[in-house]
Amino acid sequence: MQSLFENWRRFITEAAVSYSGILKAMPSSKVVSEIQSLELPEGAVMLPPEKLHVTLVHQSILKPYRKEIKSMEFPEAPEPKLVRTADGAVELQEAVDDPKRSWVVFLENQEEMRAYVNQVMESLGAQADPEPERGYHISVANLTGNPTDSVRYP
Questions:
Q1: Phi, psi (5° rounding) for residue 23?
Q2: pTM reported for the whole predicted model
Q3: pLDDT of 22-77, one tens digit each?
């Protein structure tokens, strides 16, 4: 049996980048606290803190690089910086022809996130800026609190 010391990376999710089909950045506890302090509209159910993340690259883009990315050591990602406005900056996303609804907070540091994605993609030998339309955000709530019930946002 391996010791906790040998497996320490499995237990650290704070501000880490990981691959689980998608490439995602987990927010630090500070950012999670900011999210948990947001006022949500009626009907919105906050996602569990351990499920909050920034999707950096969608799985459809990474599929050809699965083997390489599984063993990749990721450089440190930028800390997500939440857009804050007078109304808290939570935006509703609705699915077309689907009853799903979710609420997201966009990131202030879009270009910094895009540069990070470009760095990772280039290290894979892939095309930079694979999703130029992607708006980096954190889905914070939906109608059930189950992350699989969130709207897929580009």
A1: -95, 125
A2: 0.83
A3: 999 999 999 999 999 988 989 999 999 999 999 999 999 999 999 999 999 999 99
Strand segments, DSSP code E, in the chain are 17-19, 23-25, 45-46, 54-57, 90-94, 101-106, 137-142
> Strand pairing partners for 21?
none
The domain limits of the chain are: 5-149
Residue whose tokens read 């980096």: 136
User: Does the CA dihedral 82-86-88-90 come out positive or negative?
Assistant: negative
Distances (CA, A) of 56 to 1, 20, 32, 87, 119: 34, 12, 17, 26, 12
Q: Which structure tokens are listed for 134?
A: 């992607």
φ, ψ dihedrals at 148, nearest 5°: -75, -10
Residue 46: which region, alpha, beta or left (left: phi > 0; alpha: psi -120 to 50)? beta
- The 8 Å CB, 24+ separation contacts for 142-146 are 142/44, 142/45, 142/47, 142/100, 142/101, 142/102, 142/103, 143/43, 143/44, 143/45, 143/99, 143/100, 143/101, 143/102, 144/45, 145/45, 145/46, 145/47, 145/48
Q: Report whether 139 contacts 27 (CB < 8 A).
A: no
